[in-house]
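Summarise this fold before class:
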Amino acid sequence: MPDTRLDSLRAALPGLRLLTDPAELEHYGRDWTRRWTPAPLAIALPDSVEDVQAIVRWANANGVAIVPSGGRTGLSGGAVAADGELVVSLERMNKVLGFDAVDRTLTVQAGIPLQLAQEAARERGLQYPVDFAARGSCSIGGNIATNAGGIRVVRYGNTREWIVGLKLVTGGGELLELGRALVKNSSGYDLRHLAIASEGTLGIVVEATLRLADPPPPTNVMLLALPSFEALMRVFAAFRSRLQLQAFEFLTDVALRHVLAHGAQAPFDEVHPFYVVTEFASDEASEAEALAAFEQCVNDGLVSDGVISASEAQAAQLWRLREGITESLAKYVPYKNDVSVRVSAMPAFLAETQALLGREYPQFEVVWFGHIGDGNLHINILKPDAVAQADFVADCERVTKLLAEVLQRHGGSISAEHGIGLVKKPYLWCTRSAAEIAAMRGIKAALDPNGIMNPGKLFDA
């Protein structure tokens, strides 16, 4: 039965699209974690900034919590609405608002999918270089909320580096215009950077101005087969010293097996323990350097085999081996760790983490892959059919606490690019000090005085 509180929202915004069908509540009330039963009050789909402000003011007046919603491709429970919240989906706010050829910026509504923003940049002879496999469904607003990274961070950095301005509707309903695309601005606190990675706990990002870059050079993709885990960082060093890398990704034989079962084409006749997908400029000099780096690594016993793309189609096939991993694992609803350390700390961290997971997960299949070039590792633990979901999650949480202790020793982060949300909230202590968390709570209280914005995510009030 519809909640009577919605009557006043309908009266205040008669043109607002409001969904209450059970199937729609389930669809919009969850993200890719699938660990919580969605139970939102309703789904609001505004189509203007003014609508978003009016919704937030209504929520304050009626004591209703809000969960901002983009593409809901997150893996940390940041977009979950499981406790009667109003989901505010920005999917109707999906337009390109403007392009400035001099400043080389593109202004978009926050609900626009990443892929459409990338296409809009290409149509104007430039590129928006942040990229990852969920490009077709994730939104710019969601990318900002988690400071999303992806496959080309080693070359271009995270989302944060490409947001020169944004508009934020705070938890009090005020509209803040942050950054304003200024190259230089030393006028106090940069609230734009507070909004980025805030996971919707400070307000709702409704608009963003994206910095664009020169079109990418033609590139080649190389797949390398490695005989050992210890070779990874040495291979990275060898290629980085010779080439301007666009990407440097790794995966294990277990990850490759799942992608091949999902329809990808096997790259080699033999199976190897580890693989690297790297991308670099395809000019003649770079190709020669890439082959020299390959030969050096083969001679040093660091690489067992390799293949270089001879066409765009083959490059896409090689990238599918890395980008198809998450989709190939989705049916298992894996428990995921998304961690990072400094690149210089990666060898010691990898060795300790490999030993930890081998010791603590003898009964579970563990699928590794990640952005080795920027210190980001993805760990997916698959649940056997015979193990109850609650027991599986409890065991994974036990091991994650041990992993958090390893991260703390190595100065790392429990969340590299997926956010904290609900999943990683118990482990925030390994990344942030008590004083930092207290400061974040104070910032939230200033911008969201009634605590209605995505409560329970990132930290408890």
Remarks:
- The chain has four domains: 5-92, 96-211, 219-326, 333-430.
